[in-house]
Amino acid sequence: MSLKDSLRKQLLGLLIGGMVLVMLVAGFCLRYLTASLDDYQRLLAQPVQALTLVDEANLQFKIQVQEWKNVLLRGKDAANLTKYWQQFEAQEQKVSGQLTALIRLADVMHAPELAAQVQRLQQEHSDLGLAYRNGKAAFLAAGADPFAGDKAVKGIDRAASEQMSALVAKLHSDAQRQSQAIAEQAVLASRLGAGLLLTAAILITLFSGWLISRHIVTPLQLLTEHLTHLSRGEFHQRLTLVRRDELGQLMTAANTLRDFLAETFGQLRSSHDQLDEASRELRQISGLLTTGTQDQLSRTDMVA
Fold it and tell me: How do residues 92-104 score in pLDDT, each as one tens digit?
């Protein structure tokens, strides 16, 4: 049975179609918002991770510088010298490891400018390591004199520290800028989604109203007018709207009722005419009988 054969299926199809359209619009909006979420995840996975790495490298570098100061201040004792120098080298390895990881991440991010900047910083840090070792040699040559060791490396960490701070500031700025752009995109997506859903709801309402008016309300009005004519005894017009659904069946029944009433009314009119004719004949016969009776009575009176 097709949709044209069932009004129930037509209404159900209209309802399902409207729901499907709303779901499609909602799915599009959800996909758009999901893209924003993916952008946030990429931001966390790459720029924010890069920021975390450089922050950690900066922290480890500061600890490395502090360990060098411990070498100068407490290195007169051989055991302390060994201890703090080993800690210095450990921090040096941590900084180098963080910078190496940052270079790999920059390659994944397809950020050659960042990779080149980190490579320059890594080279600066490597040169700084050689300078610190020369400072240690000067420190030991001066009989563990901290002033001699400090003089040998005085100010050499400034360039690396400035580069580290500049890189931190740049990554912070980039991450904030990307985060703001993604947030604006998400707001735009939410507004666009709300607008699309509202537009879809309005279009579905208008289209549903038009369909219901055309396929249900208008035929019912025609049927009501037709039944009103039948109630007044006006049988000259038949319903010509051809449908195969429940309303079509109802209109067919209304036409059948019209034919039945028209036929019955015709038969009643014919019977009424026949009764009128019979009544006239009876009146004529009654008149003749009355006249004959009067004549007979007159003759009887004359004979008497």
Answer: 999 999 999 989 9
pLDDT, tens digit, 9 for 90 and up, residues 129-149: 999 999 999 999 998 888 888
pLDDT for residue 68: 92
Q: Which residue has the tokens 């019977």?
A: 271
CB atoms within 10 A of CB 10: 20
pLDDT at 294 over 70: no
Average pLDDT over residues 190-215: 80
- Per-residue pLDDT, averaged over 165-182, amounts to 78
Q: Does residue 70 surpass a pLDDT of 90?
A: yes
d(CA 40, CA 63): 32
Please give the DSSP secondary-structure letter assigned to residue 46. T
Per-position DSSP letters for the chain, written without gaps between them:
--GGG-HHHHHHHHHHHHHHHHHHHHHHHHHHHHHHHHHHHHHHHTHHHHHHHHHHHHHHHHHHHHHHHHHHHHTTSHHHHHHHHHHHHHHHHHHHHHHHHHHHHHHHTT-HHHHHHHHHHHHHHHHHHHHHHHHHHHHHHTTS-HHHHHHHTTTTHHHHHHHHHHHHHHHHHHHHHHHHHHHHHHHHHHHHHHHHHHHHHHHHHHHHHHHHIIIIIHHHHHHHHHHHHHHTT--S--------SHHHHHHHHHHHHHHHHHHHHHHHHHHHHHHHHHHHHHHHHHHHHHHHHHHHHHHHHHH-
